[in-house]
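Thread: Modeling a multi-component assembly for a lab meeting

Hi all, long-time lurker, first post. My supervisor asked me to bring a structural picture of a complex we are working on to next week's group meeting, and I have zero experience with this. I have the sequence lines for every component (510 residues in total). Could someone generate the structure of the whole assembly? Inputs are pasted exactly as I received them:
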Amino acid sequence: MNIVMALAGVVIKEMYRRKDFYVLFVLTVVMTLLMWGMNFFDDTMIVGHIKEIALLLIWISALVIAIGTAARQIPAEREARTIFPLLAKPVSRGQVMLGKFIGCWLACGLALAVFYVFFGVLSGSREHLWPVLQWLKVFSLQWAMLGIVVSLVLLGSVVFSAPSANATICFVVVLGILLLGGHLNHVAAQQPQPLGTVIYAVYFLIPHLEWYDVRDLIIYDQNWLRWVDCGLAVLYAAVYSGLLLVAAWLVFRRKALNT
Amino acid sequence: MATIVETRNLRVEYRAQDSGTGKKVALKGLNLKVEAGEVFGFLGPNGAGKTTTMNVLLGFVNATDGAAFLFGVDVREPIARQRIGYLPELTYYYKFLTAEELLRFYARIFGIPRAQADRRIDQLLKLVELEPARRRPIKSYSKGMQQRVGLAQALINNPDLLILDEPTSGLDPLGRMKVREIIQRLKQEGKTVFFSSHELGEVETVCDRVAIINQGELNVEGRVADLVARHHANLEQIFLNIIGYQPQPAV
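Re: Modeling a multi-component assembly
Sure thing. I ran the full set together rather than chain by chain. Output:
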């Protein structure tokens, strides 16, 4: 475990020494604060709309950070050839994969926590309401969802050698699941056979990332999500992350690395 | 004497990039033995199979046939690499880390306790003369400094076997001399050094034994002094004869 945590530590250091996170955070802060000071058309629901936009920015930033960080891990190690001195130590490829996953996931969690603290302070200062437990539920669900995204991207990074190609493909897949994943069963019901069955199979096979999008919970102060549901969703994310990581490891362990 | 590095009928085949269907044989049944305390030079022209052999020993590439062992442990087991240090030909390190952070990272990988790691890092940074630059990111180092960080990371676990891939390539004469001094010092400490180099004068100076491979096959193996006496020539002339070099007549 020491090896895995050492590897994870390098990934976290890399994230906070790069500019990506700071740029996204500053953009989110600036855009949210600019809107916060305005009052469009005397809309009484303006705070809710601005919170919606702020959370959307947080979602986009978190996905960009997760995909960007995970996509470059293995390809950048191969391209910069840092993988060779690393694997010349008593480190297995499984440990490398696990270390990268934990590092990316923790780094995303740290970044996400910073975004949510900003959101919480802003929202609380305006509404004088502090539904911390609800924020925690939303945070934990989004973080669990990022676990699936990170492991999916790590699998992509051992299949596609170019980080940019991997990042683009993974971004399209993740957005596709978020926007269409929940509707695939309805689409399947309207299709002739065997296409309907194929779409149904895809529906049951893909990780349903859209389930983790519970922004309404804190925007409109709805208290419909139980902790047990949160726990089950986190378990679902852990199973999918695990399966994707095992697949990534199986591909990576067979890869010949020539110096 | 204990055998530290051993290859048995090692064969490595690659899919040929150009033909698409054919196979390229990089190693054709290589048998090698390096004993404890030896400085072993591994020589051959470009494309002879030196790097492939090192890649197999370090677990980067799996052998098609045969086997390789470090300290008697199959190289496919990560634990076989617990007592080795590896210095690649070019510096490949996380450039956003400082030298101190890089060494601490590798020390953690070897499971070296914190206090011991601190002492070891101080010693090594002094040895490679990077003490004043220890907190600067590696990306700001010159090539020579990066090569010295490489040497420090290869020694972090106080290895019993050091695998060096052209360790003096790209270094100035002073840097080369320092690397040679370090190799000699390691030899005096009873460490085993396995290194490939194109600098045959250097090999002749520091190595006890050499092996010359060409086209994936071992052509010569023996003590440097014996080879020189047997062929009545220096190592460079022996090397050129063995690989079949014919000087072109002057036009």
